[in-house]
Amino acid sequence: PTNSTIFSLIQPTGKIHLGNYLGAIRSWKDLSEIESEGTRYLFGTADLHAITVPKQAQQLKQYRVEAIASLIASGLDVTKCTLFHQSSVPEHTELNWYLTTITSMGMLNRMTQWKSKANQEESSSIFEEKVLEKTKAGLLCYPVLQAADILIYRSTHVPVGDDQSQHLELTRNIASSFNHVFGKDYFPIPKTLLTPAKKILSLRNPSKKMSKSDPDQNSCVYVTESPDEIAKKIRKATTDSIQGKLYYDPEQRPGVSNLINIISGLTRKSIDDTVTDLQWVKDHKQLKDQVTELLVEEFNPKRHLYEQLLNDKPYLDKICREGTDKAREIASVNIGQIRALIGL
Ligand code: ADP
Ligand code: NA
After folding, report:
1. Whole-structure pTM value
2. How far is CA 42 from CA 170, 278, 307, in A?
3. Protein residues with CB under 6 Å of any ligand 1 atom
4. Which fold has domain 5-200+312-342?
5. C or N terminus of the chain, fewer CB within 10 Å?
């Protein structure tokens, strides 16, 4: 749509994996290639979110650089997209505080993700003494910062994978509350743009999503991985012992269905068409070979560009500096208007 602001971030907490690619980055690229008058595209790293789980400083630095290189290597055009690190634009954290004052603890407690990060059962109450003692407030308040990230640019559309739906719903609630309390219609109510690809699951344990924070490196295939490594990981992917004709059943056959989702995502075909196309497949090995072939084809050129980019830190710094300037230009105007609405 014209005059939209399209915004999304990725956490610099590890190498960018297939789930991030199909669930987020490829759709950022697709959106930014649509010709639409006056539309802005803002993408970057959520480095302030990354520190809600403790990180080594050197490691975080490296992941930030790698994330920007991955975004460019994955095809984002730096002349169309503004790329930056969240922490470089201090207006995010200022708005975060204002939004904290209008967000109820109950709403935050109903968010399920902080509980899984705190290794808690979703049903356990925050008021349980033990949970409270070991969980940092940042983990609970994380979705407010996410709302601030989106709203500081008065974003209209947020392309994310479906693990983020609940947080986006909260952002909409917070935007409405702010509009109600301080200024009719100041914030557009941002729409979630769910990516068409299905959520990609861990290769080793298909009851979990593929995630950067998974300590098992074999659970993820990375955008920057070599063909040999990709082949090895896909070979080791958990499937099942059901023989015969291939069929899609995420409940009973999560591993095989995940591989079908990967093929469907990469080829942009529906699940039904993908399964029909795969009727020649006689066993799990053939299915895996097909997945490997498509992944190598998709990622190989990206890996070469990524390696070049990582060897050119001054270029990456320049892109981030220019992105930060553009982002701050918008954010500093908006934060002035927000302060005025609040009476500061
Ligand atoms: P991670 O969980 O790997 O650390 P992030 O929280 O940084 O990923 O998410 C970055 C983007 O990637 C988000 O838009 C998220 O919805 C998407 N995403 C993350 N994991 C997956 C997955 N397994 N499948 C599809 N999309 C995903
Ligand atoms: Na995550």
Report:
1. 0.93
2. 20, 38, 24
3. 10-11, 13, 19-20, 22-24, 160-161, 163-164, 199-200, 209-213
4. Rossmann fold (3.40.50)
5. C
